Every structure is written in C-alpha cells, then in structure tokens.
Amino acid sequence: MSPDHRRFVLCAGLTVAVAAGWLSAVAALARTGVAFELLLLALPLVAWLGGGLRFADRRLHALVLIQTGFLLACVAGELALAHGTPAVHQVARWGVLVYFVVQGVGFVAYQVKRRHPIGVLQTLLGTAMLVGWWAGPGGLGALSPDGAYWALGAEMPWQVQVTYIAWALNPLLVQSAELPRMGQALVQLASIGVALASGAFLHVRILTACHAMTVDLMFGYGRRASDGAVARALTLPPPWRAFVEGPLATWLPRLTLATLAAMAGQVLLFGF
pLDDT tier at 164 (50, 70, 90 boundaries)? Predict the structure, then answer.
C-alpha cells in the first residue's frame, strides 16, 4: 500500500471514529429532553440568518429544511407524550408522512432531471416501503424502554432499515457532487452506524444527519472545492477513485434495486 493510500485509510478511519463519537453524543443529549433538540433545530436557522450556510450544492439546503420539519414533528410528538394531547399526536404522525412523501418527490425529481431511471425506481420503492410502514396499525409516537423516541410507535422494522441503508449508499457513493472528497460520505456513514446502534433508527438517523449536514454547510469539511487540509486528506487516491467512479457507480445502483425489490417482496409475503 502506497503512502497516499495509507494516509487516506488512516484519515478516513479517524474521521469515522470522531464523527461516531460526536453524533453519539448528539443522540444521547437529545434523549435528555426536547430543549436540546430545539437547540439543535435552531442551529440551521441561526447559521442561515448569519450567512453561514454556504454549501455549493443547493439540494442540501432543501434537504436540511425537510429534515428539520421531520424533527419538529418528532418534538411535537414528544410534547404530546409529556402532556397527553392526542390531537398533537396525530399532527406529529401526519408530519412523518409529509416528510416521507416530500423527500421522495424531491429525489425523484432530481433523478428524472439526471435521466437516472434506476434511481427513480429505487426512490419509489423506498418511499413505498416507508409509507407502508407508516400506514400500519398504531403509528403514534412512543418512547422506548431506554428513553429513545419512536416516531411511529415502535422501532423501524428491519426490512425498512435494510431498504433505507441500501438506498442511502447511492446518494453518498454514486450521486454525490462532492466525490472524490469523502468527508461528507464518511460522516453520513457514521450517522447510519450510530442510528443502527441507537434502538430508534429513524429519529436518530435524521437527527444526526441533519446536524452533520448543517455543520458541513457552515464549515465545508466535505466540500469538493475546498483546499482545507481535512478535505485534501479525505480525497480518494486515483486507483480507488477509478473504482468508485467506474465499477461501483455501475453496479451499486443495480444491487440496490435488487435489494429493495427483495425487501418489498418479503414484506408483501410475510408483512413487517
């Protein structure tokens, strides 16, 4: 392994470790109460008003806004639990559905614009799985035994988690405008890992993803055009870049579509 490859592996491993620790702390603090969650949700607004959101990819601005809306629905659900207000519970439940649909429509529109039919099918299947889970029995917010917030009353079924992760790998490793800079992708992969370990996948994933993107919008650790030391250290070496932009870009979307179809078939046959 060349020095460039060793340096990249070391920096990537350190980035994932630091990001996992930082995002785990964010998730743990969010469990202490809605006050900290509201503080996190205020960060994008404060940064925007101060001119701090300056990422070149405008899609991320919209994504942060959509995710903030979902997290506000979760805060409403947590307040409804605390104060026993069923009407607010229902508002929070419908807010989750709006998030699923708006995010799906946004990604479909982008993939249609890019003429990426496999991406359109992926998003339609993924959104259908999420909406199918939402439409199931129950679905009102609840707290897990260890205090995590379940946006739809229970942990996300494993089939939906597999669907989400398989789908998310494509925006991170194939469609990202920041490649071959891997900073953004590595932090988001750490977010997925933290969410998997949390026992409240959906809420923790969106909470940590939104927080990480807001920090990226402010400081640009994943920005392709950045000349910062972190961005340079997390740039794929040429041979690995060729693999990501060649075989991986060709086969990952196809493997993802097959995985999503398998999960959809499993749910149709056996349920969640």
Answer: very high
